[in-house]
Specification:
Elements (H helix, E strand, L loop, with lengths): L1 H52 L7 H8 L7 H36 L11 H15 L1 H7 L5 H26 L4 H25 L2 H11 L8 H20 L1 H7 L3 H6 L4 H23 L5 H13 L4 H23 L10 H17 L2 H9 L4
Helix pairs in contact: 1-3, 1-14, 3-9, 3-12, 3-13, 3-14, 4-5, 4-6, 4-7, 4-8, 4-12, 5-6, 6-7, 6-12, 9-12, 13-14, 13-15, 14-15
């Protein structure tokens, strides 16, 4: 009898002990998230100021802060360099890195493929085809492109990239109504190969000066966006980001598999289309203004999952945005080669940063399967 009375107490004690044992783990998880986010924000602030300070001309940090707070720099030329050249480039880098990383995160979740990003759908290749048609085939327009920041040349590149990306997106949207995710992924790759083949043919018959202009665009750059163009780039990134945030709950359900997501009441086709549109808006806007920036969309989401040890999109979304902006600005900072007049191709730097992350990812296949096979809160 005494044993029967003591047994429930033992069960309660064990339950309480179990809850107590889980409490430090829960707190540790949120502490890790808080510390990681704080560190990422601090790194973003540091690299942002460094981008404004360092370059072919060294500007003191005190002058940079003075200009940003509405004051005056010690030299008038410093203020012109910061406000006219470096600040729009840094802000563009923030928008581009955040947009590409967020789009990559969504694509990896939707396709449950660790190497997926918006470019595998052919959106990037479609944008490249549009730009190639303008630069390599249109005589007067391509001449304007050689002027760097010339108004007509810049506008024609952005419009061409947007139209090319939009046409590919429309094709992918139609295909998504008829095929499953894996087939859609393969079709996206085939579309990318086909458009790349057309671009190669155009390059073969193009004049040397037009090839030079096209290669300059494919290198990628944050420095070609003006303040007037920022009024288009910024709203596009904000709209794509807000659309992504709306899909947070559904993306968490996608991690459990489509069958389980359906059992939770998730409308698979609706949210798949929604996410594809959001990711394409983010990618199309950045590609049109900055060129095809690679590796950020693939590498940053995996880096964030590893640092936070979580696959919960409610946690990942803000962290991916901050880390994407930080890594994009860091890559641009390296590409500027501070202290010299040399500017390296931005895509080369992002590849040097992103490739080791992807290789490290492939070496951790067990953790990778866990990230895409179960929902970590």
């Amino acid at each position: 009898m005494m044993s029967r009375q003591h047994s429930p107490m033992t069960g309660d004690s064990r339950a309480l002990a179990g809850r107590t044992a889980k409490l430090p783990v829960f707190l540790t998880g949120w502490m890790r998230i808080g510390i990681s986010m704080s560190a990422a924000l601090f790194a973003l602030a540091v690299i942002f100021l460094a981008s404004l300070s360092f370059g072919s001309v060294r500007i003191p940090i005190a002058d940079v802060i003075a200009v940003l707070t509405g004051g005056e720099a010690s030299r008038e030329v410093f203020e012109k360099i910061i406000l006219g050249i470096r600040l729009p480039r840094a802000i563009t880098g923030v928008f581009a890195g955040a947009a590409l990383s967020l789009a990559g995160l969504q694509m990896q979740t939707i396709f449950r493929n660790p190497l997926a990003d918006p470019f595998v759908l052919g959106v990037n290749s479609g944008a490249s085809l549009g730009v190639a048609l303008v630069i390599l085939m249109i005589g007067p327009g391509s001449a304007a492109l050689l002027a760097g920041l010339g108004g007509f040349g810049n506008a024609s590149v952005v419009v061409a990239a947007s139209l090319g990306a939009g046409l590919v997106l429309a094709l992918i949207m139609v295909l998504s109504l008829r095929v499953d995710l894996m087939t859609l992924l393969i079709m996206g790759l085939m579309v990318a190969y086909a458009t790349s083949a057309v671009v190669s043919i155009l390059m073969f018959f193009a004049m040397p000066e037009r090839l030079q202009a096209f290669f300059a665009w494919t290198f990628g750059s944050f420095g070609t966006v003006t303040w007037s163009q920022m009024t288009v780039l910024a709203p596009a990134v904000v709209i794509g980001t807000l659309m992504s945030l709306v899909a947070t709950k559904s993306l968490n359900a996608f991690l459990l598999g489509e069958a389980y997501a359906v059992s939770l009441g998730v409308r698979i086709l609706l949210w798949r289309t929604w996410v594809l549109i959001a990711a394409s808006i983010l990618t199309g806007a950045v590609t049109g203004f900055c060129g095809p920036i690679g590796f950020i969309g693939v590498a940053v989401p995996h880096l964030c999952r590893s640092l936070l040890q979580s696959s919960d999109h409610r946690v990942l979304f803000p962290f991916v945005i901050v880390m994407g902006a930080t890594i994009a600005l860091f890559a641009d900072f390296i590409a500027q080669v501070p202290g010299s007049n040399v500017v390296l191709p931005l895509n080369a730097i992002t590849a040097l940063i992103g490739a080791p992350i992807v290789i490290w990812l492939l070496l951790r296949k067990r953790n990778l399967r866990q990230a895409f096979g179960e929902h970590a809160s």
